[in-house]
Structure formats: structure tokens, C-alpha cells
Write a structure and sequence with these properties.
The chain contains two helices and seven strands. The chain is α+β, with helices and mostly antiparallel strands. The protein has a domain of about 150 residues: Sandwich (Immunoglobulin-like). A five-stranded mixed beta sheet has the order 1-7-6-3-4. The chain is elongated, with a radius of gyration of 54 Å.
Length: about 250
């Protein structure tokens, strides 16, 4: 019988730091297991990542050779697969390497007909569980524990998005109405004060012009009317009676 792999206490997990796209609808990030396999790995060994649905992780069986590794395309039926084959030296303490791994990032896997293991997008939110498996030329040599269930994000269907924003509450509407009314009153006051100032300036200019015209106006001189002479052959009796107008002169 093959020797069972060594059980390592390491538990894979999503990195705790803030990370853009740490968990999406088809992918998730894992912290790289540095220094975990030191003392168990040789230069020719490889580290694999086993991915399984959370309710199928207990039924997962480690492959005995690379030829038995379950591929990505069998995930819907087998409920598990293996991916991210990496040289064990890349996980050593002295190896400079990125701090995280991304599961499900290879979108070209869906179009590939080859049998090679692939890191394709995850088909559903899960949840999933993962573990790292160290494999040599004679089969598995060491393995980590299974992770806690990892649930992906659920994409929102376009049909559920409301094209019109939800109606605002009555309190918000009342406050908005009050602010609008105050703004209108303020604008009216400012415009009224400005208009009164301009109108007063125009009226002041007009009064000055009219006063100047009245002071400069001169009427034509009309001399007083002279007394008209009486017709010849007429006399007045008593004298002085014809001088009082508008009485007619006395008959001759």
C-alpha cells in the first residue's frame, strides 16, 4: 500500500488584507503557503491546489500520479478538480514570490479541448473548499487541511435593476421643497433690491434733466393790447362812458 501523505497543520485561507477583487462571482484569492512544505519537498516535486464543492470535499481522493489528476472540465460532474501546478521550490521561505494566488482566473479554459489541468472560472457561487497537495514521482507526499467554505459573490441579474430610482421619503421631499422656497424668496429679494437701486438712479437722472429744461425755458414777449380808436363822427355822452368795457358806446 502507498504511504499516506503527511498531514500539515496549515489551513488555506483568503488573505485578510484589503485587496481589489479578492472575491468575485467566478474567482477568489488565496494566501500563498510559504515555508509550509520545507522539509517535505524535493527539487522535482510539485504543489497542486485541490478545489472541491464544500459538500464534496470529504469524498475527495488524492490522485496517485499526475495522470490521475482530475481536470477542470470534470468539475460539474466530479464536484472537484486540481489546478495551479507549481514547483515546490516556489513556496520555500527563500523564494521571492507574489503574496497571493488567484483561483479561477484563466478564462481561456472553457475553450480549450486539451486534458491538461486548467485554472478556469468557477461555475457557481459555491461554497468551495481548497487544500494544497505536495506530489512527487511516487504520489502524494504531504497535504494541508481543507479551508473553511469560501462563498463567491452572486451576480445581479440586469432584469432586477430598477431603471427609475426609488421614490424619496416624504421627509426628504418636504425638506427639498422648503429649501427651494427659501431659495426663490432670496433670489426675489436680491433682484428686487437691485431693480429698485437701478430705477432710483434712472429717476434721479431724469429729474435733473427736467429741472434744467424748466430753468432754461423762456416764453415769447407779448406786448399789452393798445386801445382801439373810435369810429369818426361818434361822441360819447356822458363823457367817459365808452371807456368802460365791455359796454357799447352811447349812440351819437
Amino acid at each position: 500500500l502507498p504511504t499516506p501523505p503527511a498531514r500539515l497543520p496549515y489551513v488555506p485561507h483568503v488573505p485578510p488584507m484589503a485587496l481589489l477583487g479578492k472575491v468575485t462571482a467566478t474567482t477568489f484569492a488565496l494566501e500563498r503557503p510559504r515555508c509550509v512544505f520545507d522539509g517535505h519537498a524535493d527539487a522535482s516535486d510539485a504543489v497542486w491546489l485541490a478545489v472541491a464543492f464544500a459538500n464534496a470535499s470529504a469524498a475527495f481522493r488524492n490522485p496517485q500520479s499526475r495522470a490521475d489528476v482530475p481536470p477542470y472540465k470534470q468539475l460539474p460532474a466530479a464536484r472537484s478538480y486540481m489546478t495551479l501546478e507549481t514547483a515546490a521550490a516556489a513556496y520555500s521561505c527563500s523564494a521571492p514570490s507574489p503574496p497571493v494566488l488567484r483561483v479561477g482566473s484563466d478564462t481561456a479554459c472553457r475553450d480549450q479541448g486539451r486534458q491538461d489541468p486548467c485554472n478556469g472560472p468557477l461555475p457557481s457561487p459555491g461554497p468551495y473548499r481548497v487544500k494544497f497537495l505536495l506530489m512527487g514521482c511516487r504520489g502524494p507526499k504531504a497535504e494541508t487541511r481543507w479551508s473553511e467554505p469560501i462563498l463567491l459573490r452572486t451576480a445581479v441579474s440586469p432584469s432586477t435593476i430598477e431603471p427609475v430610482p426609488a421614490r424619496r421619503g416624504s421627509a426628504v421631499v418636504v425638506i427639498a421643497s422648503i429649501l427651494a422656497s427659501l431659495g426663490a424668496v432670496l433670489a426675489t429679494t436680491v433682484l428686487g433690491a437691485l431693480g429698485a437701486k437701478v430705477w432710483g438712479s434712472l429717476c434721479h437722472q431724469g429729474l435733473g434733466t427736467h429741472a434744467f429744461i424748466r430753468r432754461s425755458y423762456r416764453t415769447h414777449h407779448i406786448p399789452p393790447a393798445l386801445p382801439q380808436p373810435l369810429p369818426p363822427g361818434c361822441g360819447c355822452s356822458p363823457p367817459g362812458l365808452c371807456c368802460s368795457a365791455p359796454q357799447p358806446p352811447a349812440p351819437c
